[in-house]
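Checklist before submission:
- one chain only
- standard amino acids only
- sequence pasted in full

Submission:
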Amino acid sequence: MPRFRETVRTLLRERLLDAAYEAVADRGFGKLRMAHLAGAVGVSRQTLYSEFPSKEAVGEALFQRELERCLVGIQQGLDAHPDDLRAAVEAAVGFTLTLAGRNPLIKAVLTSTGEDGLLSYLTTRSAAAFDTATEMCDAYVTDAWPAIDPVARELAVDAAVRLTASHIVQAGPSPEESARRIADTVVRVALSTGRERIPEQASGARPPVLLQDGPVADLR
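Returned file contents:
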């Protein structure tokens, strides 16, 4: 019986969060009403408050659930290309950009933005989400590609997270194109050692390209 009750409670919680997500995505968090949420799921307000004692508690639970979904998707993108750093970054970034494009809560979680005050009270928590994503990616890259210089790895991971957030906020190319460009930048940073020097060149000569596509392809 205890296990059955726990399962029922989990299902109820997910139904409430699903209904809350639909309401927030449609009308904004500011217009979410606990009475309407209870009615949408078909439970009493007492039942709702026993699970979520306040509107803020609903928002917090939504925040955590969407963040976890995003991080799981990022890791799946990385896992799909264990031997190809560029493809792994492109898959993870592409997933995040696509998800944020259709999920306003993810956009709010990752960028502290949102229309009509969408989860505006959670903006301080987005910094924690940002740090969590950075730490997870850094740990993953450290384990998967240990040969990358530690300083270059840290800079590359930071660039990946910040550039992804920037592309979410600012309308630009398609998610696929943005992911490709971000992956290219991240890989070039990851391959650097901090000791590169621009060679001298004759007057009027074209600037040299220090990192060509060849070394990137060698990571595969």
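Reviewer check: The first helix runs from residue 2 to 27.
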